[in-house]
Design brief:
By secondary structure, the chain is of the alpha+beta class. The protein has one domain (11-169). The chain contains six helices and seven strands, in the order βαββαβαβαββαα. A hairpin with a 5-residue loop joins strand 2 (49-56) and strand 3 (62-70). The longest helix is centred in the first third of the chain and has 19 residues, at 27-45. It starts with 10 loop residues before the first strand and ends with a helix.
């Protein structure tokens, strides 16, 4: 019987994400939208994603996240991420800050149904500051409150519920 080789479980930060909801949006609604976005990103890139997330509600409802992928999936993430179109997630619910500015200038009513998404490649020279900002300056999102791990269920082992990334498999 062929023995499977253990996968490298070292996670590498790849993206810094900011999700800005309409003011006074509920925490539960924000969590659902961010979960959906992260799952779509995982599905599209066919990579496992662990998201370190922190949020703030009230007058400035937003969430920050750091997307981490297994070291052996980083190359696949970046090759597929280049083709990822965030406008297709939830029928264009997430738009960039520039797109929102355009809608405001045009006085377009659809701007009230949109939320702002900002994605930036993770700057590894600021790792400590980034994690402190997301997890200490903001209220951390616990895995008991909302999903923080996303499996693409692309591989046969994942489809069978035997994901090699145990923490991700338990988050279903």
């Amino acid at each position: 019987m062929k023995e499977s080789k253990p996968h490298d479980r070292q996670l590498v930060p790849v993206l810094f994400m900011t999700f800005t909801e309409r003011n006074c949006s509920s925490k539960a609604a924000m969590f659902r939208e961010v979960e959906h976005f992260c799952q779509q990103l995982s599905n599209f890139t066919r990579t496992h994603i662990e998201a370190g997330r922190g949020y703030q509600t009230g007058d400035n409802t937003h969430e920050h996240g750091i997307a981490l992928v297994p070291k052996n999936e980083v190359q696949r993430f970046w090759s597929r991420f280049a083709k990822f179109n965030h406008n297709l997630v939830r029928d264009g619910r997430w738009i960039t800050r520039e797109q929102m500015t355009q809608l405001i200038k045009k006085k377009c009513e659809t701007r009230f149904n949109k939320s702002i998404l900002e994605l930036a490649p993770f700057d590894t020279t600021k790792t400590t500051e980034a994690f402190h900002y997301v997890m200490a300056k903001h209220e951390p999102v616990l895995s008991t409150q909302s999903r923080t791990a996303f499996c693409p269920r692309y591989y046969s082992r994942c489809k069978r519920g035997k994901c090699d990334y145990a923490n991700i498999a338990q988050s279903y």
